[in-house]
């Protein structure tokens, strides 16, 4: 809801695709800059306290942003500062919360847990975009920002009321005790995972390509909606279509318990790219809506297996760091957003997105054609 409200507001005020894309850059930049650090902290600091602190800090921030917008005292730069702090909270929350969730179920049910986590994530994305569009059309952006703050209150209350997660069982031969190391040593150990694990490197490159060439289009949805001639409510539906499709796909994956996780990951990536190509060239709102829904459905194969594959490739003591490296790979997204925004400014959103998807799809196919390790997992 925070990201959609901010992109919609910037698009309304400026009609500049680059400035709209910079909202996404500000939101995702902490993933690249702080993903590994956040993962390291996840392994060193009590995870429940980390999540609660992150959520609690965003409540007054969202409320203040809403009041300033309602009072017409929120300059453009404040939108970027606000969304940057939302992004910092997101990366801290994601690494710690996922480690908690997966620690509850063990390796045997990681795929199911990851699919359900993806289901929850994209249900929130869908409801957030849809609700923000409805609120903006019925009231104003300021009310939408205040609702973001309320959502954080509910999230913190729900999280605080839940029972403290049990410590994951220790496998035979493992120990919970970790040697005392410096933060720098932990960071080196996180990057060391890439040196010793071929499949992890292949997987993370897929993540980089998907975030650079696929997910980068999300902030530009209001610009495409302008070309389709629809208002805030229909724009919110368009922005929620990917989340709706991903949510449906994640539910199916959690129920079917697929064993070919690597193949599902790769096939889902390719399918999502193909559907985005249709969206980029659609002149008709229903077709655009359907293409994004199917893109999300296919993309659930990529997203629902993402964390599960990382978790399955490392031991429990290094899960936080592995998720931190994953966050850094996801952090390629702001670079993709910036590149797409620059290209859209020089040409137009349709041509820019088409070119981006074609290049990304080609690189994805070439990358996996000669590397069967991930598909065989």
Task: List its salient traits.
377 residues, mainly alpha, Growth Hormone, Chain: A
Write the layout of secondary structure elements.
Elements: H1 2-14, H2 17-44, H3 47-70, H4 76-105, H5 110-138, H6 141-161, H7 183-196, H8 198-213, H9 221-228, H10 232-256, H11 261-280, H12 285-312, H13 319-330, H14 333-346, H15 349-369
Describe this structure in words.
It is built from 15 helices and no strands. It has 377 residues and is mainly α. It has a single domain, classed as Growth Hormone, Chain: A (Up-down Bundle), CATH 1.20.1250.20. Helix 7 packs across helix 13 and helix 11 packs antiparallel against helix 12. The two termini are 36 Å apart. About 4% of the residues have low confidence.
Condensed summary:
With 377 residues, this protein is mainly α. It is built from 15 helices and no strands. Helix 1 packs antiparallel against helix 2 and helix 7 crosses helix 13.
């Amino acid at each position: 809801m925070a990201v959609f409200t901010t992109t919609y507001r910037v698009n309304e005020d400026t009609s500049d695709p680059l400035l709209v894309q910079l909202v996404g850059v500000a939101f995702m930049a902490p993933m690249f800059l702080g993903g590994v650090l956040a993962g390291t902290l996840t392994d060193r600091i009590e995870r429940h306290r980390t999540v609660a602190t992150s959520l609690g800090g965003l409540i007054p921030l969202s409320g203040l942003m809403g009041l300033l917008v309602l009072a017409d005292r929120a300059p453009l730069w404040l939108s970027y500062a606000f969304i940057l702090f939302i992004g910092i909270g997101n990366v801290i929350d994601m690494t710690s919360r996922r480690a908690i969730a997966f620690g509850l179920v063990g390796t045997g049910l990681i795929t199911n847990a990851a699919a359900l986590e993806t289901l929850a994530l994209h249900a929130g994305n869908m409801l957030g975009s849809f609700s923000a569009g409805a609120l903006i059309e019925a009231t104003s952006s300021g009310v939408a920002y205040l609702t973001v703050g309320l959502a954080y209150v509910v999230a913190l209350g729900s999280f605080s009321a839940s029972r403290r997660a049990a410590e994951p069982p220790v496998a035979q031969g493992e120990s919970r005790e970790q040697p005392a190391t410096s933060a720098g040593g932990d960071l080196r150990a996180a990057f060391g995972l890439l040196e010793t694990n071929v499949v992890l490197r292949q997987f993370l490159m897929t993540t980089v390509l998907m975030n650079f060439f696929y997910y980068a289009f999300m902030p530009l949805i209001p610009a495409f909606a302008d070309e389709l001639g629809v208002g805030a409510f229909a724009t919110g539906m368009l922005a929620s279509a990917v989340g709706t499709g991903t949510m449906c796909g994640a539910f199916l994956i959690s129920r079917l318990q697929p064993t070919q996780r690597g193949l599902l990951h790769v096939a889902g990536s390719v399918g999502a790219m193909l559907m985005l190509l249709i969206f980029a060239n659609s002149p008709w709102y229903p077709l655009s809506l359907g293409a994004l829904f199917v893109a999300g459905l296919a993309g659930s194969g990529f997203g629902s297996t993402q964390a599960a594959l990382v978790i399955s490739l490392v031991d429990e003591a290094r899960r936080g760091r592995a998720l931190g490296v994953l966050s850094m790979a996801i952090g390629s997204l702001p670079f993709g957003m910036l590149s797409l925004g620059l290209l859209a400014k020089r040409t137009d959103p349709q041509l820019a997105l088409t070119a981006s998807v074609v290049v990304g799809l080609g690189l994805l196919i070439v990358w996996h054609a000669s590397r069967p390790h991930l598909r065989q997992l």
